[in-house]
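ugh ok so i messed up the first submission bc i forgot one of the chains. this is the corrected input, ALL of the components this time, i swear. 542 residues overall. if the numbers dont match what u have on ur side tell me asap before i send this to the collaborators (the ones from the other lab, u know who)
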Amino acid sequence: MNGSEISSVLVSGLLLGSIYALMGSGLSLVWTTLGIFNFAHGAFMMLGAYVAWTIGSGEAWGLGPTLGATAAAAALAGLGCLFEVLVLRPFYRRKNLAMLTVITTLSGMIFLENSALIAWGPRIKQLSPLIPGTVHLLGVAIAAQEMLILIVSPVLILLVWLWLSYSQTGRAIRAVAQNQDSAQLLGMNVSALYMTAFALSAVLASIAGILLGSIRFVSPTMGDEPLTKALVVAIFGGLGSVLGTVGGAYAIGLLEAVSNYFVGLYWTPALLFVVMIATLMVRPSGLFGRS
Amino acid sequence: MNDTLLEIKGLDVGYGPTQVLRGVNLKIGDASRVGLFGPNGHGKTTLLRTISGLLRPWAGEVRFAGQAIGGLSPNRIVEMGIVHVPQGNTLFPRMTVGETLLLGAYAKRAQAPRKQNLDRVLTLFPRLAERRPQLCGTLSGGERQMLSIALGVLTAPRLLILDEPTLGLAPRIKDELCDAIRHLSGDGTPLIVIEQDVEFLTGLADTLFMIEHGRVALEVLPGQSLQHADVMDLYFGQSKGEGADAVSRSS
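and heres the new structure output, hopefully the right one now
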């Protein structure tokens, strides 16, 4: 493997890792805070892309990609709140919450995907990039939009991490995950905090969708494969830790890029699952995780 | 003028199908220091959890400063000024002491006196200042209790409720905590304390309630004196022989 091939694989791995990190961190946030796995996370990603397309694309309202992206994030924040109230909140008092929400979020996913199919039709769409043109990274030519992804993703995750670590609301969200009773007795409104965390994860998913939709395609089922990858990443990196998920995301991204080069596209997904299983056998809480 | 701060009438509460409190009646005045005691499993903690909103009453009334609070959410009840420091509080295992202290001032009512209360709390429990960078999960039992009580103070209570603050602690730490609690009550905050140690309660409280079988079995109001023998009788049952032996052994 020569120098430019290595760079090419590296850049590809970083790009995949960035998108997986955005997807995985949203999923991990919900798991850590609410203790549930949100099967509709991929659908949120897809809807983010579609809203951005409707607002921004010349084929629809034509208000430009920036406004489209902003509107998508806002819309998904709202949808996240609504989803939490309708699909999750009624079940918080039940003992089998984790199982019940598998069913409810899965139903939500099916509902949202089919709604998108009806609303926008089956033909794939493309999101125009926020920054056109190409740049060079490590001697490899990539789209400027891809460079944007490489920067936006870690920056966004860092901002979220800083907010969770140092703001009072961020602290409160971590607190209710660790001891709900004590948190309530300090005046925290658990439902409101759950809703905030869930809305934040929906916004992260929508941004992942917008970024992915601008370098790949926008379709009603575009979120399915990223959801699977995000699941692998979140479990592999360690479900209890948002930063661990990010580490896992880049590891998996790089692994996938290397595997695509040597093993090919067909076997790579299977290989990734094998790696996840092997890691879990050695470290049951994931690479960086605490259960 | 001793206004009624907390009034409970005919309270029935339970968990699932099991009833724990049966028609509890009690009244607490504004300047009170109240002790709650009684055998384990008879409803003391259940009563506190109902007052603080973690449990919803099945029947009956709970009024704080005249307002009905039964069934309100715990965070609303905190904003009204009732601060419950729960029993055996495991706090937030993966957060540091420093972060937890910051969370102590989460409630809106805790904002204005925030700096003052923090100074007060760190003076009362200097060990917490040292432990700031440490995770709550690594604290000793005594330190966790200190932090729990500190959080109670930081929330700017109008009524502070402590559920077995010295449970499971070594005698030396227990004394430290008892001193701190006496100090707190000296500052004038109305207090309800549950304790197994009736001696400590008689030293601290001016009103005592004994909870047995989900009811208020004995009430000692300000001015009345508590006969230890009465307590022993009720504690160990009607059998005179057992009660008398217990009294003569302990006195």
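quick check: Chain A touches chain B at residues 168, 171-172, 174-175, 178-179, 181-190 (CB under 8 Å). that seems consistent at least. The mean pLDDT of chain A is 89.
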